[in-house]
Amino acid sequence: MILYLPWIPIATAFLMLFVPESQDRLIRRLTLGACSVCFAITVSLLVNFEIGNAGYQYVQRFDWVPSLGISYQVGLDGINMTLCLLHALVSLAGAFMSCSVSKRAKEYHIFFLLLVGAIYGVFTVLDLFFLYLFYEMTLIPLYPMIGIWGSKNKEYGAMQLTLFITAGAVIALFGLLVLYHRMGANSFDLIRMADTLKAAPLDQSIQNWIAPFLLIGFGVIASLWPLHSWSPIGYAAAPTSVSMLHAGVLKKMGPYMILRVAVTLLPDGVAHWATPLAVLAAIGILYAGYAAIRQQDLKFIIGFSSVSHMGYVLLGIAALTPVALSGAVFLMFSHGVMAACTFALVGFIYEQSHMRGIADFGGLAKQIPFVGMCLVMACMASLGLPGFSNFASELVVFIGTWPRYPLIVCLAVFGILITAIYLLRTVQQVCYGPPNPRWSQIKDAVTLFEKFPFLLLLGALLLFGFWPQGLLRIIGPTVEAILS
Amino acid sequence: MNIMWSLLIPEWTVFAFLMILLFGEMFSREFSGKLASQVTFLGSFVTLIACFSVLGVTDSTFGGSFMVDSLATFFKIFFAITLIGVVPMCHEFFDRRLKNPGEFYLVLWSSLLGLFFLVSANDLLLLFIALEIFTLSLYIMAAYLKHELLSIEAGLKYLILGSLASAFMIYGISLIYVSCGSTSFPVIREVFALRTTHSLILLGILFILSGVCFKVAAVPFQFWVPDVYEGAPTPVVAYLSVASKAAGFAILLKLLFTVFIPFEAARTLMFSVLAAMTILYGNLGALVQTNIKRLFGYSSIGHAGYLLIGIAVGGEAGTSALLYYLVAYGLTNIAAFIVITEVGRRVGSDKIDAYRGLAKRSPFLAGTFFVALLSLAGVPPLAGFFGKFLVLLAAVRGGLGWLALLGALAVAISLFYYLSLVRMMYIEESSSEQAIGVSPVSRFLLVILTASIILVGFWQEPVLSFTRTAVHALF
Question: What percent of chain B has pLDDT over 90?
Fold first, then answer.
C-alpha cells in the first residue's frame, strides 16, 4: 500500500483536469478524499509497524534504469515513518483548509494535490535518484500557488523562495552525483549504498569535501542561518494551506535528506563539519528569535519562529548522538504539526479580517473563543509548555546535545526564553486585552467541519506530548543503527 | 559501381515529396494554397515510416561516401519527427499572411534532403554539400516574409554570417585534403592516426570546428542567434533551433569520435571551456529579454552549452547523454514554439507582455507552455530534467566536476526567466479577457508532445536504450 501513497494524490490531480471548473463541490471532495485515503493508509502502516526493528519495513523494489542502477524502491524506517505520519496529518488538515479557496479553485486543488503527492514521494522512496526527483518536483506547484493565491508581496516572495530552494537543490545534486561516482557501485539504491559504504567507507578527505555540498544544499530548505531569508517572506506571502505544508512538512525535507543521505552515507564528513553546523544552528535559533520579537505581522512572527525552531533540529543532528538525533526527528514531527496548526489559525483569522498585524487585534479569545483558545494552545506548544510534544522533543534534543556541545546548549536554551517573549506578547495582544470593536462581526469555527483541522493537529500534539514514547520507540532503533 | 539503393529509402522518400511539390507548384494554382501544407504533413509521416526501413542497418554505398549506421538513422528519425511538429506551425503561421506559401514547403523539403545526406555523409565533400543545401534553404526560409523588414534583416544577417562560417569550413576541408590526399573519412582517420601533430591537419580541424560551432551557436560564434530568432518567421525559428542545432551536433559527433580520434585531449579542454562560456552567456543574456523569440534565442544558446558538455566528456556516457538531452530539448522546444505560434497569431505580438493573463484566456495553451518551460528549466519529472541529469552525471564521471557544478547552478539562473514567463501567464492580469482559440491540429500535437515530455522524463529506459544503440556506431 505504501507504493500508492504518492500516486493517489497525483492521479487525483490528473483526474481533476477533466472536471469542469463549475463543479467546485466535486473538486473539494476529490481533494479531501485523496488526502483521507492517504491518511488512512499511513495510519494502517503505523499500526502494523514492527517496533524494535531498526531496518526498513514494507520494502518493495522495481528496477527502473538498470544501466545506471536506478530502481523505484520504497520502504519505511523509524525516521520516515514518523515524517509520513506528520505529512498525513498536515496534508489532511491542509485539504480541509483549502476548501475555503474560491478564486480559481480547480487550479489550486490540482497544484495542492501535486504538492501532497510529491512530498509523499520524498518520504517513501529509498532510491537516491527518485528521492531527488520528488524533492525537486515539489517546486512545480509552489511558485504558482504562492504567486496566484498569496497575499502581500506575493510575487517577490514566490520567486525568492523558489530560487533559493532550487539553488540549494542543484548544489546538493552536484554533491549527490559526486558521491555516486566516488562510491563506484553504480547504484542509486539507498539500502545498497549504505551497505557498500559501511563496508568500505570513502576516504576522509573525499567525505570532507562532498559533505558541505549536501549540508548547504539541503540546509537551504531547512532554513539554516544565513540561508533562511526566503522563509519568513515566503510564508508571509503564501496562502494558508501552502504555509501549512511548507512550514510543517516541506521544511522537514531538508533535515530528512541530511539524515538519510549525508549522515548515513558520509558519517565522517558530517562529523568533520558538525561543529560549524552546530554554531550556525545556534546563531539561527537566537537570531531568528530576536527577529521575531521585532515583528508586527503575525505571519512573520511565525515564520521567524519556524526558522528558530529548525535551529534546534539542526543542532540535534549536528550533535550526532543517538539521543540528540531521536530528539531532532521527534522535534521535526512536533514542530511540523504545531507550525501547521498556527498557520491554519492565522489563515482562518486573516480570511475574515484581512489583517495580520498583532496590533490590529485584541480580545479575540472572547470574540471567537474556539479559534482564540486554539491559538493560545498552539503558542503554548511552541514555547515548550510541558504536555505538548514540543516540550518533550526539545528536551530530548538538549539532553542529547549536552555531552557534545554544552556551551551551545546553554546558549540555545536562551532561545526558549526568547520564544516565550514574542509568543506571550502575541497571545496577550491578539487574544486578550480589550476587544477591538472592529472585529465584533468575526465568526468563530462552529461546525465540526471547520473545527476538525485544528482538533486533529492539536490532538496529535497532546497525544504525543503525554506519550512521547509512542514515537520515540519507533525512531530510536533506526537512529541507533544509523550511528553505529 | 554497385549501388545499394535500398539504403537510400528515406532519402528517396524525401526526394519524391520534393518532386511532388515542385510539379504541383508548376501545374496547379490551388495546390500552392492549401494542399501543399497537407501533402507536406502527410509526407512527414511517410518519411518517418521510411526511416524505420533502415533501422538497425549498418552499411555504406557510393564508394563508401554515403553511410547508414545507427547514429544516422537516429538523426533521420529525429528530423522527421521535427518536421511533423513544424509543418502545422507553418500552416498556422502562413495561413493568413501569404497567398501562396507552396514554395515555402518546397524549400522545407529541400532542407530536409540536405539534413538526411548530412548525417549519412562519410566524406568531407558530401558533408559540405549537404550542409550547404540545408543552410541555403534556411537562408530563404528566414527571409521568407519579404514584406517585413525584420525578416529580411534576419535572413541577410544569417546569410552573411553563415557564409563566413561555410568559408571557414571549406578552407579547413581544403587544408585537410592537402595533407591527407583524400576527403574520405576512413582515409583521413588513418592518416591522422599516424601523424597526430601534423600542423596543417590540426589547423584544418580548427577551421572546420569553428564552422560547426556557428551552427550549434556556441559562444563565441553565437552573435547571429538573437537577431535571427527575433526576425525570422516563428516556425522557421522552431526548425532552426531544433534541426539546425541537431545537425551541428551530428557533425561534431561524427567528426570528433570517428575521424579525428587522436584529437581527444585538446577536445576535452576546448569544448569544456566552450560549454562553460556558452551556458553562462545564454542563461545570463536571457534574463533581460522582452521579446519571447529573442528569449528563446538566448535560452537555445544556453542549451547548446549543456549539449557541448556531452562532447567535452565524450565516451559512451557523454554522447548518449547528449542525444538524450537533444531528444528532450527537441520535443520541448517544438511544444513551446507551437504555443508561441498560436499566441503570436491570435494576440498578434511576440512580446512577453502578450502572455499576460494567458492562463485565463486559454488554460490549455498556458498549461502546456508551463510544462514546456519547466522541462526546459530542468524540473523533474519532465524530459529536460533527465537530460540535464545525464549530462551532469557524465561530466562528474568524466572528471569535469567544475563544469557539472557550473551547469547545475545555471539551472537556478534559468529558472528565473522561465518562471517570469509563468508569472506573466498565471499571475499578471491581462487587459483583454477574450478567449484564445487553438487549432485542432495544434491542440492534438500539444497533447501528444506534453504527454511525451512527461513520459520521456519519467520512463527513461526506452529512449536511453535507443540513444545507447545510436552511439554504438561511434565506438
Answer: 52
CA distance B366 to B363: 5
Cβ contacts below 8 Å, chain A against chain B, sum to: 82
Q: CA of A327: how far to CAs of A217, A398, A400, A403, B329, in Å?
A: 23, 8, 7, 14, 46
Residue located via cell numbers 485565463? B360
**Helix (H, G, I), strand (E, B), or coil: what is residue B475?**
coil
Q: Which of B426, B455, B469 best probes binding to A when mutated, by most A CB atoms within 10 angstroms?
A: B426
Select from B148, B156, B340, B334 the least CA-distant residue to B234.
Answer: B340
Show the CA angle centred on residue A68, arms to residues A66 and A69, nearest 5°: 60
- The number of folded domains in chain A is 1
Nearest Cα of chain A lies from the Cα of B196 at a distance, in angstroms, of 32
What residue numbers bound the domain in which B337 lies?
Answer: 263-475
Comparing alpha-carbon positions, the chain B residue that sits nearest to A108 is B426
Query: Does residue B301 sit within a domain?
Result: yes
* 3-state secondary structure string across A216-284: HHHHHHCCCCCCCCHHHHHHHHCCHHHHHHHHHHHHHHHHHHHHHHHHHHCHHHHHHHHHHHHHHHHHH
At A277, which amino acid appears?
L
Residue count (chain B): 475
Tens digits of residue pLDDT in B35-46: 888 889 999 999
Tell me which chain B residues have a C-beta less than 8 angstroms from the C-beta of A129. 389
Give the H/E segment covering residue A14: helix A7-16
Largest CA distance in chain A: 69
Phi, psi of B291 (to 5 degrees): -105, 135
Cis peptide before A406 (omega within 30 of 0): no
Range of the domain at A236: 2-483
pLDDT in tens, B50-94: 999 888 888 888 888 899 999 999 999 999 999 999 999 988 888
**Candidate from B41-50, B88-97, B326-335 with smallest mean pLDDT:** B88-97
Positive or negative, the CA dihedral B25, B28, B29, B31 is negative
- Domain assignment present for B346: yes
Name the grid cell of A365. Answer: 479569545
Among B381, B416, B426, whose Cβ lies nearest the Cβ of A148? B426
- Other beta carbons within 10 Å of A284: 28
Residue B389 inside a domain? The answer is: yes
User: B41 and B88 in contact (C-beta within 8 Å)?
Assistant: yes
Find the mean pLDDT for residues A335-341: 91
Q: Which amino acid is at A297?
A: D
Please report, as a single letter, which amino acid is at residue B130: A
Residue B194 in any domain: the answer is no
How distant is the alpha carbon of residue A261 from its chain centre?
Answer: 17
Rounded-to-integer distance, Cα A144 and Cα A107, Å: 10
Buried b (16+ CB within 10 A) or exposed e, A192-226: bbbebbeeebbeeebbbebbbbbbbbbbbbbbbbe
pLDDT, one tens digit per residue, over B362-396 is 888 999 999 999 999 988 889 999 999 999 999 99
Nearest to B374 among A129, A140, A170 (CB): A140
Q: Which positions in chain B touch A147 (Cβ < 8 Å)? A: 422-423, 426-427
Question: How close does chain B come to A303, measured CA to CA in Å?
Answer: 24
Q: Give a three-class secondary structure readout of A73-127.
A: EEEECHHHHHHHHHHHHHHHHHHHHHCCCCCCHHHHHHHHHHHHHHHHHHHHECE
